[in-house]
Amino acid sequence: MKLALGLEVYNKPQLDLPVAAIQAAEECGYHSVWTAEAYGSDALSPLAYLAAFTDRIKLGTAVIQVAARTPASTAMTAMTIDALAGGGRTIIGLGVSGPQIVEGWYGQPWGSPHHWLRDYVAIMRKVFEREQPLEYAGKQLQVPFTGTGSIGEGKPLKSILHPTEGIQIWLASGAPLNTALAAEVADGWLPMGYGQHGWEMHGPNLEKGFSKRSSEAVPRSEFQIFTNLTVEITENVQEAIDRRKPMTAMYVGGMGSEENNFHRDSMARRGFPDQAKVIQQRWLAGDKQGAVEAVPDEYIDMGGLFGPVERIRERYPHTIHEGSTGQIIRSTDIETIELLADIVEEHSGLE
After folding, report:
1. pTM value?
2. CA within 20 to 30 Å of 304's CA: 6, 111, 168, 216, which one?
3. What are phi and psi of 123, to 5 degrees?
4. How far apart are CA 309 and CA 315, in angstroms?
5. Mean pLDDT of the 105-113 span
6. Mind listing the pLDDT tens digit for each residue in 311-340?
7. Among 159, 154, 295, which residue's Cα sits nearest to residue 238?
């Protein structure tokens, strides 16, 4: 089992990277550290900064939003970060976000999430390969651009910078079509909600993608599936659960419209469809406290490890689900980081 560290600094009013915690994770043998973005601090700049303070740990985004930048721009940034980091350390996790952010923040058309991701990965692969000047005609994206507003002078170009080997592309998804796409074209998958029955639910869609696996991606045997695991050492389990309810309510209730909310859908897929509906209804009606109160204790508890060290050790085996190859630990507490490394080493070995 691989361990990774997930940073939740993107949703704060000030950016404060926990460098000591990241270095502790690297010392403990963690596979990777992951940043994210919403509509504040971006996910890529911190990785360039962290490259200077680390030596081995992989640097990943979980995730960057595809509407935020062109695939060529993302590929350029990935190559730059990986060169700064010494090579073979960068993982670009891609996601589509939701219509409110895509159209409301980035000013981009929502379009087709599936075609956004398919075209985006294909263009990034072409940039990395450098086999010929970049040309791509997809259903969502075209390079060179020839659409409305073009003056027809776009020229296919090839990256001046030669990429280091080993830059990977992972996809985040929860719905069937893009889950299959991850298995088809990506090097790894970041599921939006997995849980105990994750493989039973998503395995058939992954298998569809694996049957059409791209030759540019890593071999299927090296395909990674990283799930999320929030951990807190505490004597008060209920308080730890309650502290996480406001964020859950905000995502399930407000990070999307009534029609399109991937976080609501993820909660529903994990066995809480009625609660997800109530949370969204209350949040959109302006009853944010009511939405928080509607978040089930069980939903929070099943997605994390809260309590004394003994409870965390006892419950850890139940967090390992069929198909998963890694866990992204949501904690920056060094004691917790070291504890999880110790537990995983005892249980299954730390890869």
Report:
1. 0.91
2. 168
3. -70, -40
4. 10
5. 95
6. 999 999 999 999 999 999 999 999 999 999
7. 295
Residue 280 contacts by C-beta under 8 Å, 6 or more apart in sequence? 252, 253, 254, 258, 261, 264, 291
Q: How does DSSP assign 72-100, residue by residue? A: HHHHHHHHHHHHHHTSS-EEEEEE---HH
pLDDT at 316: 96
How far apart CA 216 and CA 226 sit, in angstroms, is 21
| Token pair recorded at residue 15 | 């950016």
* Topology given in CATH for the domain delimited by 2-234+308-347: TIM Barrel (3.20.20)
Q: Phi/psi of residue 239, each to 5°?
A: -65, -40
- Residue 266 tokens read as 């993820």
Tokens of 239: 């308080």
**3-state class (DSSP) for residue 261:** coil
Q: What is the distance between the alpha carbons of residues 41 and 49, in angstroms, rounded to a whole number?
A: 13
CB 292, CB 249: distance < 8 Å: yes
CA distance 198 to 324: 9
pLDDT, one tens digit per residue, over 249-258 is 998 998 777 8
Residue 173's SS3 state is strand
* Token representation of residue 147: 């659409």
User: What span, in angstroms and rounded, lies between the C-alpha atoms of 178 and 229?
Assistant: 22
Q: Under a CB-based contact definition with an 8 Å cutoff, are residues 51 and 82 in contact?
A: no
Which amino acid type is present at position 48? A
